[in-house]
TrEMBL record:
This is 2,3-diketo-L-gulonate reductase. It comes from Marinomonas spartinae. One of its GO terms (molecular function) is 3-dehydro-L-gulonate 2-dehydrogenase activity. Keywords: Oxidoreductase. Pfam families: Ldh_2. InterPro entries: Mal/L-sulf/L-lact_DH-like_ah, Mal/L-sulf/L-lact_DH-like_NADP, Mal/L-sulfo/L-lacto_DH-like_sf, Malate/L-lactate_DH-like. Its EC number is 1.1.1.130. The gene is dlgD.
Length: 335
């Protein structure tokens, strides 16, 4: 597989966006957002999904030069209309606003309607954690997962995402499906079996075969009935808090994954706990967990701890290794 430098990947993205009329400064920020995700190890959304993103731009579903605006302010809670602009930029702008509100009130929440897929949702709460905050985020999607006990698609994967400051920050980016479709695609491209069951085959039997699940899309909710219930209540909250589209509305009315509803919450930890106490408590939690006796297979890890390893890996390699098929798709967008 080819290794593409960070600079070349960024320039390629910028050229593709600029060719579609995106303003120069916004194109640069959006390209850098995609590449940062990939450089931190999230190839599924920083690279693999870029051609899908551009296909939505070309269909008119994503408005490259639209920006979010506040349409309702209620103290620490604001509603923003994103006007179908790029989800990555919406996320970055609204994450910054949530932190501004948190600095004033201790907590800040921005509900976002008419947004678009923001790719790796962890990017926005990680941005908060790196500034010393705790962050919580969620987004809905079209119906792409069966409800527990069902066969056809009635639920979104509706990720719930959390991060908290630390050395390094802790980040959990959790789709309500056992495997996100982005991660599932990674296994399809690598032609590798899933480590644990991911859904049902055509005969209704549990399977680890990513090719079968990529085709029939009978993916499992995370934690079986628990993930199914979480997906439903998250959609209800997202719809009520933002005043935007629900999973049924996206699926039946919009007919595609655009105009989604999202929220971002920032908590200013400097207002909730003394800095030295925070440092000591976080250190104790880490050490307590990491001192676990290892199981027969696997190692004990804390979420988010591998980000710097990916960055160093790409630095040493001179770039990011990209699947030939995906790189060909990206380059074809230049023509």
């Amino acid at each position: 597989m080819p290794i593409i430098s960070i600079e070349k990947l960024t320039d390629t993205y910028k050229s593709i966006l600029s060719a579609r009329g995106m303003q120069t400064e916004s194109a640069a920020r959006l390209a850098e957002g995609f590449v940062e995700m990939a450089n931190e190890g999230i190839y599924s959304h920083g690279i693999n999904r870029f051609p899908v993103f551009i296909s939505q731009v070309d269909k008119g579903q994503i408005k490259l030069n639209e920006t979010p605006e506040c349409v309702n302010s209620m103290g620490a809670l604001e509603q923003w209309d994103c006007h179908y602009g790029p989800g990555v930029l919406n996320g970055l702008i609204c994450a910054d606003r949530a932190m501004e509100l948190a600095r004033q009130y201790g907590i800040g929440m921005v509900g976002m309607r008419h947004s678009n897929h923001w790719m790796r949702g962890g990017s926005y709460v990680l941005r908060m954690a790196r500034e010393g905050f705790a962050g919580i985020a969620a987004t809905n999607s079209t119906a792409v997962m069966p409800a527990w006990g069902g066969k056809d698609h009635r639920l979104g994967t509706n990720p719930l995402i959390m991060a908290i400051a630390g050395e390094p920050p802790v980040l959990v980016d959790c789709s309500m499906s056992q495997y996100s479709y982005g991660q599932l695609q990674n296994y399809v491209l690598a032609d590798k079996e899933l480590p644990v069951i991911g859904g049902y085959d055509d005969a209704g039997e549990l399977t680890k075969d990513p090719h079968v699940l990529w085709k029939n899309k009978r993916i499992l909710p995370m934690g079986f009935w628990k993930g199914s219930s979480m997906s439903i209540v998250l959609d209800m909250m997202l719809t009520a808090i933002t005043g935007g589209h629900s999973v049924p509305a996206l699926t039946e009315d919009m007919g595609g994954e655009f105009g989604v509803s999202q929220f971002l919450i920032a908590i200013d930890l400097s207002k909730t706990i003394d800095a030295s106490q925070f440092s000591a408590e976080m250190k104790r939690i880490r050490e307590y967990v990491l001192s676990s006796e290892p199981a027969e297979s696997g190692t004990v890890q804390i979420a988010g701890s591998s980000i710097e390893k990916f960055i160093e890996k790409h630095r040493e390699a001179g770039g990011i290794e990209i699947h030939e098929q995906i790189w060909e798709q990206i380059q074809a967008l230049l023509s």
